[in-house]
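To fix ideas, we close by showing one paired sequence and structure record:
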Amino acid sequence: MTGNREIHLASRPEGWPTEDTFRIVDTDIPTPGPGEIVVRNQYLSVDPYMRGRMNDVKSYVAPFALDAPLDGAAIGEVVASEAAGTAVGTTVLHGLGWREYALLDATAARPVDPSVAPVSAYLSVLGMTGLTAYAGLLGVAAMKPGETVFVSAAAGAVGSLVGQIAKLKGAGRVIGSAGSPAKVERLRALGFDAAFDYHDGVRESLRGAAPDGVDVYFDNVGGDHLEAAISAMNLHGRAAICGMIAQYNDTEPPAAPRNLALVIGKRLTLRGFLVNDHNDMRGAFVRDVAGWLRDGALSYDETIVDGIENTPAAFLGLLRGENLGKMLVKV
């Protein structure tokens, strides 16, 4: 251990972030105090919600501070410990990513078993990403067997799992949108009944893919996707609003769906959610997903970028849709 590199927020972006939004800072490897551990991060997660934290606005989570390291989900090995019960060599999941070495209270780290699955899986299918898909589809949207499900950004980390879980839980038809022909083909390989490239027109493509309408919409995009879903949804349809990546970098207020009046006549439910509100479903999630992975019934994709110095590039690539499945940085 010779030094520690961190990625700091150098400026608050207006519109799309750039490489200049970030700064690589060399620091000393921290020393733990009583009850603390030092973790050498192995994998870092970059996620769309992080774009909102770059703005200095009040939200459900505090904004990133300027000239300080960003944070996010990470997994790594404990290399120093002053905490009883947390031994050096333990693999832990925690929230101080965007750096090589993390100093944290041992109570803020969750030990995981690296023999169960590749450690990166705890940042995707076995972690917050997987629970988001599971809880949003089955808890928030309350999908029932036989229903038609539409998923936007379906080739992404959450969306690709939503579609597969829907099929495993008995959905009658699952439709996904994605941003390229290659991603559309991947969705079909994952078992989606229909998939389309949103560049070909969302409303028209969805109408063709769901001639009998949509019962459940899992929204990762917002904008034109949400508008198209509202038009296509059946009576008493439900939408789980997970994200709205289409407008994260907008500098003007979004036009918003122009057909919200349909929510009334169709008696639709549009419900936003945060994954941390659904920890009561974690037990069922772990049981189901572990079983599906063991049986080979559930697949997950990862796009891995090497090097802590490339974390900003990985994040920018995520916003541009360059990832298939979960975007991770291998430290």
Observations:
- The chain has a mean pLDDT of 96.
